[in-house]
Amino acid sequence: MEKEFVVIGLGRFGGSIVRELNKLDIDVMAIDSDEARVNEYADIATHAVIADSTDETVLKSLGIRNFDHVVVAIGDNIQASILTTLILKDLGVAKVTAKAQNDYHAKVLDKIGADTVIHPERDMGRRLAHKLSNSSIMDYLELADEHSIVEIIAGPKLEGMSLLDLDLRANYGLNIIAIKRNGHITVSPDPGEYIQRGDILIVIGHDNDLGRFESKLEDN
Ligand code: ATP
What GO molecular function terms would the record report (predicted)? Predict the structure, then answer.
């Protein structure tokens, strides 16, 4: 059975989710209290509805509990975001993802039962800071508290070493889960694989261990 999605709040963030789901040919209901915003998405969403999501009766009448996943993308109006999330969980929506504006907001959303809390501005800021901090880092993805995946580009310090020579697991407690080379990706690369300049190593591990390895690669 196809999944059914709802996005509440059609700002830049919620709007981009609706557009992307539409591109992926996935049905999505888009809800906003602002008529102009809803009109913008009339031809993009499967259904675009003007509604105040803090009104439980309205959400019930839209049959919201029958949807698999609702994204609450209301940011600035923290009260509306919290109340909406609370009503959705009360009505029995299986999966609610809510966008937080700040850490307190995130805490409250988590406490009232949001299944996933996202913090796009903070996460993008962290990601960019990691990229800026070290020229070897191509990308950074926080997985959970204190664990991340980083993409590290191989420079002269790594060139010509085999994964066995590098032995990241023994030396740093890290695992190389894949190597990207010339647009191709090799998952679980062979330990005998030699690293070439420009390879991108996709490495997973604890932030402290990643930090130790990254600092070894300064000016890599
Ligand atoms: P973004 O950072 O995603 O661009 P934004 O600043 O454009 O966000 P927000 O204030 O975060 O907008 O709100 C996103 C949308 O949520 C707005 O279009 C707003 O009309 C809508 N919204 C706010 N409160 C409600 C509500 N109670 N019911 C439905 N939609 C709402």
Answer: monoatomic cation transmembrane transporter activity
CA dihedral 118, 70, 74, 132 (to 10 degrees): 30
CA 21-24-25 angle, 5° bins = 90
**pTM exceeding 0.90:** no
Give the residue numbers spanning the domain of 146.
123-218
Q: Are 104 and 186 part of one and the same domain?
A: no
- 3-state secondary structure at position 86: helix
Per-residue model confidence (pLDDT) at position 2: 63
Question: Residue 146 pLDDT more than 90?
Answer: no
Q: Of the spans 38-42, 102-106, 145-149, which averages the highest pLDDT?
A: 38-42
Distance 182 CA to ligand 1 centre (A): 41
Q: What's the token pair of residue 130?
A: 């990691």
Domain termination residue (choose one: 118, 134, 153): 118
Q: How many residues does the chain have?
A: 220
